[in-house]
């Protein structure tokens, strides 16, 4: 990443550009770099902000999807943002959903890609062979349609994270919270426009999850990315950005 991480009043984030605000929420194992090509594409027309979710900083006894939603609320109030477009991948999408149910007045539109909140087939309840680099490499490759997307740098980062005992406990705590927090009965409350941009070959949150989101979210559209896994903005950034651009043009420029 070429962007400087800003630290203000306990918040860490990056931002670029000017205009309507897009807030990008990363996933459980996600890095800010996951959004790099989205930031590059949209920063000339929009104000793009990526907060670092405090998965490794919040008290472990309160760590969960709701705690991250409260953090997003504090961050948006601190920055004096209103009517933002929330864009979330995986756990970030789930956090965006929880936040929107509670604070829809802050959100003009929502974009979900590979979001948890209904069902996910992630790492599960443990990392039984976290000391094995090949095992972790296989798990990271599982995230994508094309295993080559799991670069050595990405695998190295995940391997380092899951072999940090403090971090892996927090990751598992967070993952269990996400699995427990099923959003099915709450989604009808979200009446703002929602764009679902989904990998057709997502094995973590499979296509039927996207279809269920589409069915339960009353004002949603569903866009498929072929030959794509759990992170379309990384694996097929041009297609992802094209879908996102059309959605933003429709909801923000009308």
From TrEMBL:
Keywords: Hydrolase
GO molecular function: hydrolase activity
Pfam families assigned: Abhydrolase_6
Domain AB hydrolase-1: start-end pairs: 22-240
Record carries keyword Hydrolase: yes
This protein's record includes keyword Hydrolase: yes
Cellular component, GO annotation: membrane
Protein's name according to its UniProt entry: Alpha/beta hydrolase
Species this protein is from: Pedobacter paludis
